[in-house]
Amino acid sequence: MDAVSLAIIIPVYNEAGNIGKTLTAIKERVTTPHRIYIVYDFDEDNTLPVAREFLQKGMDLVCVKNPVRGVVNAIKTGLHGAVEDYLLVTMADMSDDYAVVDSMIDLMAKGYDLVCGSRYMKGGKQVGGPKLKKFLSRMAGVSLYYIAGIPTHDVTNSFKLYRKTMLDSLTIESNGGFELGMEIVVKAHFAGFKVTQLPCTWTDREEGKSNFKLFTWAPKYLTWYFYALKRSVGIK
């Protein structure tokens, strides 16, 4: 078997109803050799017993305890702790499109440093989800694409593939939640790294409750939105 080159990082919070389906989908659809990092906040998380069943069956899977609770810290813990060349962030709720992961790897092999799964480019699609969140996300992505030159229509999507050497060169400042992915895209672009996108389908979860906090995190997204606008006109 080829050496593992891909880390798949999954922050979790009581995802017992979804993690089995997610791990099965990854196994069936991702042919690139990979290791899965399950990042959890507390030992009683009901995700862990299900994940460990897959580990016992031979899946290359590591459960990593997040030293500081919260989704942004879980993602940081996964990104900093993984040793593989390519790092994919995905959710445990079956929302992301694992059928495109190998194509994301192919793009990175061609020299890109960051590959964004895009719901809002031609060929992409979003199924379900809150209408206000969808509207704001689409407006942010499309406006930054045309106004600031950010090379993705979907800057807010967390489903992204990062080159580890690129990521290690950036200082991540996000302290709220999923705005971290947006921060990395805009910083990578203006630092001269090669960023691209490919279409994907995002599907709203069927089980469990989303931990996305729209009104709490909106100001965090706006920070990086205006950062991108200012950098696009030469203001640092």
Summary of the model, kept short:
The chain is built from 8 helices and 9 strands. With 236 residues, it is α/β, with parallel strands linked by helices.
- State the share of residues found in helices, binned by percent: 40-55%
Tell the overall outline.
globular
H/E series: EHEHEHEHEEHEHHEEH
Number of strands: 9
How many whole angstroms does the radius of gyration measure?
Answer: 17 Å
Notes on the protein architecture:
By secondary structure, this protein is of the alpha/beta class. The chain has helices spanning 16-29, 47-56, 71-81, 101-109, 131-148, 164-168, 179-190, 214-232, and strands at 6-11, 34-40, 61-65, 86-89, 114-118, 125-127, 160-163, 195-199, 201-203. The strands form 2 sheets. The protein has a 7-stranded mixed beta sheet with strand order 3-2-1-4-7-5-8, sandwiched between helices. A two-stranded parallel ribbon has the order 6-9. Strand 1, helix 1 (16-29) and strand 2 (34-40) form a beta-alpha-beta unit. Helix 1 (16-29) runs parallel beside helix 2 (47-56), helix 5 packs parallel to helix 8 (214-232) and helix 7 runs parallel beside helix 8. It is globular, with a radius of gyration of 17 Å. The mean pLDDT is 92.
